[in-house]
Recover the amino acids of this structure.
C-alpha cells in the first residue's frame, strides 16, 4: 500500500544528499560511529583476514588503516556532497519492487521515476 510513497521518499533522500549539505550533527555522529567501530573490525582472526582481503581487493596499501580514523574525522559536509554528486545517479538507478503488480504498478508509474519493466519469475 505504501510502495509508491516509499519510492518517492527514497528518491527524495538520494536527491537531497546530492544537493543539500549534510546536517552537521548527523555528519559528526557518522564520523564518530565509523571511527569507533574500527577497532571492532580487527577483533578476530576472521575479521583480520577480511580486512586484509579488502585491502587486496581494492589495491590499498597495508598501511591503509594507520591514519584511517584521522581521514574519517576530516570528512566535511562538502566532501559528502561532492562524492554523492559523483556516485549517486538518480537517473540510472535500478530499483527492484516485488508485489502485486496490479496494485502497485499504476502508482509507481505516476511517480515518473523512469521506465517500469516487469520481470517474470
Amino acid at each position: 500500500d505504501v510502495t509508491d510513497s516509499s519510492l518517492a521518499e527514497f528518491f527524495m533522500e538520494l536527491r537531497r544528499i546530492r544537493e543539500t549539505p549534510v546536517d552537521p550533527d548527523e555528519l559528526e555522529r557518522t564520523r564518530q560511529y565509523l571511527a569507533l567501530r574500527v577497532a571492532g573490525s580487527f577483533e578476530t582472526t576472521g575479521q583480520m583476514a577480511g580486512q586484509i582481503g579488502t585491502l587486496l581487493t581494492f589495491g590499498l596499501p597495508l598501511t591503509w588503516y594507520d591514519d584511517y580514523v584521522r581521514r574519517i574525522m576530516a570528512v566535511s559536509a562538502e566532501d559528502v556532497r561532492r562524492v554523492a554528486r559523483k556516485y549517486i545517479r538518480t537517473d540510472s538507478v535500478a530499483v527492484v519492487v516485488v508485489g502485486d503488480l496490479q496494485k502497485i504498478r499504476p502508482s509507481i508509474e505516476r511517480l515518473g521515476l523512469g521506465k517500469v519493466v516487469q520481470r517474470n519469475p
